[in-house]
Design goal:
Layout (H helix, E strand, L loop, with lengths): L2 H26 L1 H12 L1 H23 L1 H38 L6 H8 L2 H21 L4
Amino acid sequence: MSQSPTQQEVPVTEGAERQSLDVLDQLMKPEVQESLTVLVENLPKLAEMVTVMTKAYDFAQGIATDKVLISDTMSAMGEFAKPVVDKAKGVASAAIEANDRAQTEQSSVGLFAMLKMLKDPNVQQSLRFAQSFLSILNERQQPKR
């Protein structure tokens, strides 16, 4: 029984010796020695960079875990998005209602009904928008041809 721990220790010691020899072999290479020299020469800069990065990490960690800041940010984003969401909901509900009305209405739209609709300010505004939009699209396609 006393020999089995000794047998187990021998491979570990041989592995450690091999590893230290590998490290020494690596350290003997000229390119490794040059790299170490460059690292040693730049240690003050590296220490300064690590200090700055540590401060930045601490700052980011503080912000990421600040529940008050997170809730304030979410609240501000909600207030910013609320008018846009409300407007989109209004447009969507108007489109759904218009579709429902158009589906239930069975009468045809004649020439005189269209002329009467042309007097509606909303129809005029929509037509001006459509005309301007199509004009802009046409202008943008002209140079490409």
